[in-house]
Amino acid sequence: MKGFKKYQELLKLDFRGVQKKLECKPGKINRISARVNFASCFQGVQVNDFSLETMNGYNGLFQVFLMYSAFEGFIQLFPEVNRYEVEKSFTNYKYQEISEQILNLDKKGKFLNTLMDQLDPKAKRNKERISKFQSKELSTPLPVAAAIRHIFAHGKLTPNANDANPKKVGKICVLLSNLMKKIMDTEFEKKIDSFYDEIKSKAKKKKTI
Questions:
Q1: Are 80 and 160 in contact (CB under 8 A)?
Q2: Using the 8-state DSSP alphabet, how is residue 92 labeled?
Q3: How many CB atoms are located within 10 Å of the residue 41 CB?
Q4: Residue spans per domain, the chain
């Protein structure tokens, strides 16, 4: 996760000051960073007797599951951000472009309809957002990632469900994982940079006293 090395550098200079700025204990940030790194480094699993296309789909779903799990923890570092409307706080990302690519990959709605069918009835808000995503009323694909994470975790999602194309499902998952990684890298580094010089300056002054 970009900015993590700077974060570690600042912790050595002013442990309490950094913790106060982030309003979060270092242990939690370490766990989030480890999850992000694991999800980013995930290369897939190897299974006999499955086609390459099917495994591309499964590995894509698995990576979204890992990345969104990290993303959920990451959002907690930003109390002001509504986890259901991340795009309203983190605005400078290609939500519209990625949404259009996903809808083009799933033109018949086979995969997205599966998500709608398999989501827990209690997940009304996520269902509503995916429905708006399909009708192009909502221009962020993050609700799709949330649905994949929760359904896949419960063992109810395969890349060829409802005759979906597993190769295209894999491509959808790559788009989602890359978007979440970009947001986490950029926003964490930005947050650290917002007080990096201040902490460094204070540390220098203490040395000269």
A1: no
A2: S
A3: 8
A4: 4-208
Model confidence at 132: pLDDT above 80? yes
Of the chain, the end-to-end C-alpha distance in Å amounts to: 35
The pTM score is: 0.93
One-letter amino acid for residue 132 of the chain: K
* DSSP code per residue over 22-89: HTS-HHHHHHHHHHHHHHHH------TTS-HHHHHHHHHHHHHHHHHHHHHHHHTT-TTS-TT-HHHH
Question: Which residues are CB-neighbours of 65 under 8 A, at least 6 positions away?
Answer: 148, 149, 152, 153
Higher pLDDT, 120 or 185: 185
- pLDDT tens-digit readout, 20-48: 899 888 899 999 999 999 999 999 988 88
What does pLDDT average to over the chain?
92
Helices 15-22 and 166-208 meet at what angle, rounded to 10?
140
Dist CA 196 CA 185 (whole Å): 16
Q: State residue 179's pLDDT score.
A: 98
Q: Give the closest residue to 29 by CA, choosing from 20, 38, 19.
A: 19
Asked whether 19 and 53 are in contact (CB, 8 A), the reply is no
